[in-house]
Amino acid sequence: MSDISVLISTDMSQCQRYTVHGVVPVRVAVPQTSADVSVLINYAAHQGWRVVAWGGGTHQLIGAPPTAVDLVVVTTALNRVLQHEPNDLTISVEAGMTMGALRTYLAQHGQMLPVDPALPDQTTIGGMIATATDGPRRANYGILRDMMIGIGVVEVNGQPSRAGGMVVKNVSGFDMMKLYHGSFGTLAVIVSANFKLIPIPPVTATVIATFAQSDQALAYITDVMESQLTPVTCELLDATLLQRIGVTGEWGVALAYEGPQAAVDRHMTELPQRAQIHGGATTLFYNETHIQCWQTIADASAVEHLAVGELVLRWATLPAFVDELVQRIGDLGQSLGGNPQIHARASIGVGYVRVTGLDANTQNQWFEALPEAVWVATNATNLDTYWHAPVGGLDVMLRIRDEFDPQRRFNPGRFVV
Amino acid sequence: MQQLAQLVTALRAIVGHDGVIDGAAALLTYEADGCVMDLHAPNLVVLPRSSSQTGAVVKLAVAAGVPVVARGAGTGLSGGATPIHGGIVIATTRMDKVLEVDTRNKRALVQPGVINWELSQHLANYGYAFMPDPSSQKACTLGGNIANNSGGPHCLKYGMTTNHVLALRTVLPNGELIWTGNGSVDTVGYDLAGVMTGSEGMFGIVTEAWVRMTRLPESLRVVLALFPDIPSASQTVSTIIARGLLPAALEMMDKLAIKAVNGMYKLGLPESAGSALLIEIDGVEEGLDDLLRDVTQICRDHGAIEVRPATTPAEQAQVWAARKNAFGAMGRLSPSYYLVDTVVPRTKLPSILAHVGDVSRDFHLPIANVFHAGDGNLHPLILFDRRDRAQLERALGAATEILKESVRLGGVVSGEHGIGVEKRDYMDILFTTADLAAMAGLRRSFDPRELFNPGKVFPARKGCGELAELRQNAIAANEIGEVPAGTWL
Ligand SMILES: Cc1cc2nc3c(=O)[nH]c(=O)nc-3n(C[C@H](O)[C@H](O)[C@H](O)COP(=O)(O)OP(=O)(O)OC[C@H]3O[C@@H](n4cnc5c(N)ncnc54)[C@H](O)[C@@H]3O)c2cc1C
For a 10 Å CB count at each end of chain A, is N or C smaller? Predict the structure, then answer.
């Protein structure tokens, strides 16, 4: 355990580096161990400091600006693998480890945690948990929520606590993992997490189908989803993103499959055939181009650095409504401007829209016109609101916040509760 | 008494005369679930037909300060639906409709009293399934599955109930009726559906749910591999997992269990076999036979004496029926059994099974094993005669031994049956006071008066209220600086 004074810095340039959505923190600390985190948070509790946890800094522009930040706790030194049981396909890692580092580590064992965030070499596991980060393979494997089997946190008074375990099936106690997942740093600082893993499949390949109209592309997606094919991704791409992966077309559908060779071959044959029925042309990617293509698509939702006037919205709807939503986004582009870029994990009804060059007022209008938005990222600090109201249960959410952070010192003002 | 009579009248005004059960004999049916260790009859049972009726019932109950316990089919094995402090049992029997099947969005809207098996049968007409398939699926309800986050053989590949719940309509302990979401995969705010799933009826009563439908696989293969003993089969399981072959299901039965199911299902399995593995793989047709060959080879490498493919759907159904009804078949061997649910890391299966063997010997009780081997989720069935007090004591002692060993091996105390009353006093073997206090904090956010299913999950000697209070005091103390840094609970 380190001495607190060694951990905390008030150096101006250091503080500026960790500016949280426009707010420069009073001090920054880089704990080396989870015990350090406890000591720091306990100290912060005594001082009444408002605290923001900082992983790779890749998601700090999501939500509202904090009302104040007395301390930023940087988790990147907590980057160790705590326990890996290759033959059990389970791992426990510290929260500051980046997804990229974890991916590299696991690849040596032929294993993977199948979530592909934007900017994997900066995005930390803790940050991904806190912000419910997703990636293209969510269509098949889900997100960390679906793979997390245990968690370690430091609560608002510095108290460490854990839940779950290192087994793949567990109902011993409540599912605290689900509580912290997507809680945007408002309940506790996540210091470690345990996951179930899967082996890296022997073969992977990609089909990109292009269409003249978005409704053709979506009809194709519906067709594939109703078939018994099991692609691991299913992304609707607009012309800009298509171009970025080196394909020309108005609308694209990107589908990856991973598994044994024979099953890959089946998908690489049948997926293009089905595309043809809907008027699509297809390109196949293997090996390096497959990997590059998917990193490009994953990076399309990056929100680490946004230009002035740039707004990114993550939305969620029912798969059947993606069509209407895509049309609406197109129409909004006409009426409000912003040159919208769209990509969607269409088979599960989640997607992103990025608009640029907008003043705060127009950003407000975009946000209001998309009640499906589950979060918004922008560096504008004066929007009317940064969250839509939850579908239900706001009162109980407020009571949860009261129980876990009664003084609202963790990420104050940033989340919906 | 008069208060009760008034409550009955008010409840009948909501659910109709026959919607309230208050006869002493009829109430006895509700004194326990499948775990008959702790019995307690409710004061009343209410059978609402809708979400709004359930909400109205809860409002009356909480106004009267009476505990409320939700009940599905009562197949739970941890005493979850047992009203240990009395009060009102809300049984979901009359909320048994599949309200909507939405293939376009791969979701179904169900009431909580729908039977798991009936839902899957219904969805099969559309080419879909609700994947969690507890062995009790012919009787258990979706509400019970959700409250317990139930598993089943196919959870190895497809995940537990929690991975198949999209949104819940719930009556909260203050009578408020909420939807946690609209069925899309992301919502704004905390993941209420996520934390409610597995909360054992302590956070709310589920009155409707959007659940995920999964497209049935194009093809599957089922094999039954017989082994001379338990270690060879459990090594096989570990190897299949470690090699990453990802079967859809990987179930194991030992000698005693084989004997029981043989008798009932005429499988003609050699009773010389020490254990059997049931392995299912699924996916598109292409590649499945290669996978099957790999699996079969691993079985042979570990000394399988016979590897039998179940080729026709009829054969496959027969093998599966034997597995899923194995517990029932135990009735042929013993008047009663205690089914212990525990999990270890999968590589620890050989050690824990050896330990179970030792416990059987030391406690002089036969123990059969039928379980979800691929997940490391054991179900030792301790066979005994309930009428014999000494045997009952030994059965409880044997269960404690097995649970302690599971934890020692890095496992936990329940994989799928829940904590309920049965396991509540094991929780502090696994968790620190602080860990439990955080759970208590979450519970209190939903139910500050602890009226929903009181007395469950938290240790009897350190209940939810006490834990939550400890935690709030610690938080408050640290923030005003009364406790020196580093002193926690
Ligand atoms: C032979 C046998 C085999 C089994 N096999 C398995 C298995 O393979 N996997 C597995 O996971 N379990 C298994 N179980 C355990 C049990 O069947 C499951 O836990 C099942 O989900 C319970 O459903 P139920 O409808 O019987 O619920 P109940 O026993 O009635 O209730 C269980 C819990 O759910 C709560 N509850 C019920 N309905 C609601 C609601 N609407 N809202 C909120 N809370 C509610 C109750 O309060 C209680 O805490 C088995 C049991 C038996 C007897």
Answer: N
